[in-house]
Design a protein that fits this description.
Elements (H helix, E strand, L loop, with lengths): L11 E6 L3 E10 L3 E5 L4 E5 L3 E6 L27 H7 L4 E5 L6 E8 L3 E6 L3 E6 L5 E4 L26 H6 L5 E4 L8 E8 L2 E5 L5 E5 L5 E4 L1
Antiparallel strand pairs: 1-2, 1-5, 2-3, 3-4, 6-7, 6-10, 7-8, 8-9, 9-15, 11-12, 11-15, 12-13, 13-14
Amino acid sequence: MNKIFSQFKQETIKVDLAGKSYFRGSLIDSSKEILVLFDGKDFIYIPMIHVENITVAQNEGENIQMPLTLPSFLEADNQKELTLDEMLTQSQGIYTEIYVANRQPIHGLIDTVMSDYFIFHSPIYKTIYISKQHLKWLIPYPEQKKPYDHSTVDLQMGSKNSRVSHFEALIASMVNKLVIFNLGEHTHHIGKLVQIHGKMVELRTARGNTVLLNIQHIKSLHEV
């Protein structure tokens, strides 16, 4: 555990995130890249880049007890410091809840981890390409649990774009296709990808309007 957080080891803490979200729970582990909380039900993996502040929870009910068991890659005999890539790799093939944009968590499976993005398969959105820097949190499902209480969830793993290493190159490969950026957070995030101009993406909306989007603010991408 990162030494600076050791003072919170026996406390119930509140973690405020950018975008006015927060979690409350027991601190399980921390590193330069990842903070792990247990909220009494789930393990919550939070990239440190999105943490605004951490405080001891005050007057918010009973303390949250430490879990009896830990996920395998957080057990005491594992001395590796937890990184974002390690977290994503360990989560491959496990049903998870993640949050990126649009005020709605998405549910499904991590398929492939690339250089600066990962491929996620959702029963609702199908194949989504997600920038690592915009992942706000990840919550693994309890063992044997599946999204939407389906006895079987048909997720087609494997992507024709999985050989594109970098997120910007992936976006460029979608020129002339209908795409949805940021889960359709705004209407101008949906349209035909016309061209890439340096760090700006030219998108044509349903009404034929041209919108320029900054690549640095594109959190996710999926093809229609």
